[in-house]
Structures are given as C-alpha cells and as structure tokens.
C-alpha cells in the first residue's frame, strides 16, 4: 500500500485493515501519542522532525526507512527488526529496544541515553557521534559493529562479547563489565583507555 499523501493515523488504520504494511510514507513535523504500530512492516518510509510519544513499535520491521531529527519519547521497540534504516540527529532516550535485531544500519548524531538494548543483535551497523551513556546492552550479540566517537559512559555491557569491535575512538569511562572484563577480550582500545580498564579490574595505576 503506497501512502505518500496520507497521514500516519489514516495509513495505520488502512494497514490494519489490509496487510499490516506501510510503504513510501513521508511525514514532516508531525506529533503522535500512544499509537500502536506493533507487528507492522514499514518500507521506504521517511519521518522528519516528528515527535512520537509513548508509541508501541514492538515486533515492527523497518526496511530502508529514515528517521531524521525525530524524537521518540518512551517508545517501545522490543523485538523489532531494522535493516538499512537510518537514525539521523534523533532522540530516543529511555526507549525500549530489548531483543531488537539491527542489520546494515547507520545511526548518526543520535541520543540513546538510558535506552534498553538487552538481548539485542547487531550486525554490520555503524554508529557515529551517538550518545549511548548509561544504556543497557547486556547479553547482546555484536558483529561488525563500527563505532566512531560514541559515548558509552556508564553503559552496562554484561555478557556482551565485543571481540573485533574497535572502541579506541569511544568514551568508555565507567562501563559495567563482568569481574574478569571478558567482554573486552579481542576488542581494540587506545592506550589511554587501558587505565579505564585497569580501574574496572581494581588495579591502581601509578604515574
């Protein structure tokens, strides 16, 4: 169903009546509260300058979509699927992404502080200049994750192996790991970050 000229609420109602799919939907500077988009499939949709409050995207699938300058306030994305979908200059602080599967996506300049990504799966994803302070990223699967100037201060990374991940251009102060720091085995860090890891292990580094 192509819905270029249709508002999201009307398009959603039609999708529920037909095939639970939205495609080629463009929305500019709109605001919605409490919408149920769970289990919906979105393809080639573009949201710019929109504000989504307490909306439910649980189990939704995003293909080739773009969210630009949007705010997702207390939204739920649990068990959602993302492929080739971009978040640019968005805010999704405190949103729930538990169990999300994220593939071949690029997220830039996006605020995700306090978001819950526990048990999520990441493959071939690039994050640039994103704020991931104090996120929950436990028991996640990470493969081919590119991080460029990402702030992971205070992030919880229990049981998330980061082998092959380059953290050298990120901020990792105060991250939470297991007692052995096994999550960092095979990851790449910068020399100055070694002191951060030493503190986590309880090692006191002297000048």
Average residue pLDDT: 92
Counted beta strands? 15
Distance between the termini: 65 Å
Major sheet size, sense and barrel closure: 12 strands, parallel
- Radius of gyration (CA) equals 18 Å
Note the run of SSEs as H and E. HEEEEEEEEEEEEEEEH
DSSP strand content? 25-35%
Helix content: under 10%
Tally the helices: 2
Spans of 5+ residues with little confidence (pLDDT < 50)? 1-5
Shape: elongated
Output the structural class. Answer: mainly beta
Question: What does it look like?
Answer:
The protein has 207 residues and is mainly beta. The protein contains 2 helices and 15 strands. Strands 1, 2, 4, 5, 7, 8, 10, 11, 12, 13, 14 and 15 form a 12-stranded parallel beta sheet that branches. The protein has a 3-stranded parallel beta sheet with strand order 3-6-9, with no helix packed on it. The relative contact order is 0.08. The model is unreliable at 1-5 (pLDDT under 50).
């Amino acid at each position: 169903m192509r819905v270029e000229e249709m508002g999201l609420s009307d398009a959603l109602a039609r999708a529920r009546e037909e095939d639970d799919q939205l495609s080629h939907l463009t929305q500019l500077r709109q605001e919605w509260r409490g919408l149920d988009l769970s289990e919906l499939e979105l393809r080639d949709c573009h949201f710019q300058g929109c504000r989504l409050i307490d909306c439910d995207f649980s189990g939704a699938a995003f293909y080739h979509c773009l969210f630009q300058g949007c705010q997702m306030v207390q939204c739920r994305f649990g068990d959602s699927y993302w492929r080739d979908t971009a978040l640019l200059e968005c805010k999704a602080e405190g949103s729930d992404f538990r169990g999300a599967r994220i593939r071949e996506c690029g997220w830039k300049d996006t605020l995700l502080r306090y978001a819950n990504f526990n048990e999520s799966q990441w493959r071939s994803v690039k994050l640039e200049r994103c704020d991931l302070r104090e996120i929950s990223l436990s028991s996640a699967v990470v493969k081919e994750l590119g991080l460029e100037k990402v702030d992971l201060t205070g992030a919880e990374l229990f049981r998330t192996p980061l082998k092959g991940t380059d953290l050298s251009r990120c901020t990792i102060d105060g991250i939470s790991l297991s007692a052995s720091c096994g999550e960092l085995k095979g990851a790449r860090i910068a020399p100055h970050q070694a002191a951060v890891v030493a503190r986590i292990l309880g090692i006191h580094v002297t000048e």
